[in-house]
Amino acid sequence: MRAIWNGHIRFSLVTIPIRLYSAIDTKETVSFNQLHREDNGRVGYDKKCKKCGKSLTQQDIVKGYEYEPDKYVTIEQEDLNKVKIKSNKIIEIEGFVDSSEVHPTLYDSPYYIGPDGEVASQPYALLTKTLKDSSKLAVGRIVIRDREDVVMLSSLDNGIVMYKLRYPSEVRKMSEVPLVDGVEANKEQLKLAKTLVDSMTTKLSEIDLSDRYQDALKEMIKAKVEGKEIVTTEEEIPPVVDMMKALKMSIEQAKKEKKPMEKAKGVKKKEKTASKTTKTKKRKSA
């Protein structure tokens, strides 16, 4: 795994040399190229002005901010250089918080943090264990590619994972979603829904979290390369069922799916009891 950034974690007077790694593997993602339909030639990025239709070079293009409809202020690179934040290669920890304080909507890109060399292993292990034992999250700031981001550090297995956090001002409020406020659940339906949740409770490791779209995409590409016919089947849309009826049917279905496992355990117990009884009879006859 190749590091994308190296620097230090600092909280109070403690400094730990670290390396930052991307936690996302993009190799499995299928990517496409734009091709000319007639001869399969690659298509380049054609920069054209939507206003006059002229083809533009890189020198003709400038950044612009729309401050009113169809009114822009142009921003040159020298303007951006004035607001760049100088990277000091330090993740400055500003405090430790409970995980319940960080709303799920604030989580963004994940990264792995590792020690930068053998010398850093001991203080790195100390911070990892401290985060794990205290069940706290470290909140700080990092500057990557001239942009400052708020980040959160958490223990993960034997290491540390870092999440970039969205700024609270960027996240919309749930109250802005239409038809959410004032909605109340039916008490009888709620009771059945909780029963259904209990019957469907499992472990995350037992749920299939594979990327089915990517798998299907690869199968389709493979079929086209091999000249095979691509066959698809459309999923039938289930009919709308009365809520109470749907909940009761769902609970019954969940019970049926668990029954075979329970029966199998019961058979094994009976078999063991029967074998013990047979052995006892044999000993008595002897």
Explained architecture:
This protein is an alpha+beta fold. The chain has a domain at 5-26 and 84-170: Ku70, Chain: A, Domain 2 (Beta Barrel). The protein has helices spanning 77-82, 121-134, 187-200, 212-225, 243-285, and strands at residues 5-11, 14-22, 63-68, 71-75, 90-98, 107-115, 136-144, 147-156, 159-165.
Which structural traits does this protein have?
286 residues; alpha+beta; Ku70, Chain: A, Domain 2; seven-stranded mixed barrel; two-stranded antiparallel sheet; 9 strands; extended
Q: What separation lies between the terminal Cα atoms?
A: 69 Å
The overall average pLDDT, rounded, is 80
| Named CATH topology of the domain at 5-26 and 84-170 | Ku70, Chain: A, Domain 2
CATH architecture of the domain at 5-26 and 84-170: Beta Barrel
The computed structural class is alpha+beta
By CATH reckoning, the class of the domain at 5-26 and 84-170 would read Mainly Beta
Shape: extended
Question: What does the secondary structure layout of this molecule look like, with pairings?
Answer:
Blueprint: E1 5-11, E2 14-22, E3 63-68, E4 71-75, H1 77-82, E5 90-98, E6 107-115, H2 121-134, E7 136-144, E8 147-156, E9 159-165, H3 187-200, H4 212-225, H5 243-285
Parallel strand pairs: 1-5
Antiparallel strand pairs: 1-2, 2-6, 3-4, 5-7, 6-9, 7-8, 8-9
